[in-house]
Amino acid sequence: MEKYSIRIKNISKDSLKGVSVKTSGLQEGLFETEPTLTGFSSWESSEEKEIVYNSKQNISALICILEDNSQRVIRIQTPLASNFF
Fold this sequence. Notes:
Number of domains: 1
Shape: elongated
Helix content: under 10%
Strand content: over 45%
CATH topology: Immunoglobulin-like
Radius of gyration: 13 Å
CATH superfamily: Immunoglobulins
CATH architecture: Sandwich
CATH class: Mainly Beta
Largest sheet: 5 strands, antiparallel
Structural class: mainly beta
């Protein structure tokens, strides 16, 4: 089982309340692997959060979908070789 550590920073000037982060992997460029769900009651401006994603499959990218209580949705997809997260 591979373990991937993802760091995401709140770059907005607002604190976020009730944030859900759905994380999955991308296999062979087409298929999403089993997602995990992580939640935070609050996420302060400029605060960085770390999420650990475990996968048994050979994945080439990570996908994170963030949604807060205000229904703001952000989708991030990046190759594993990237330093974006």
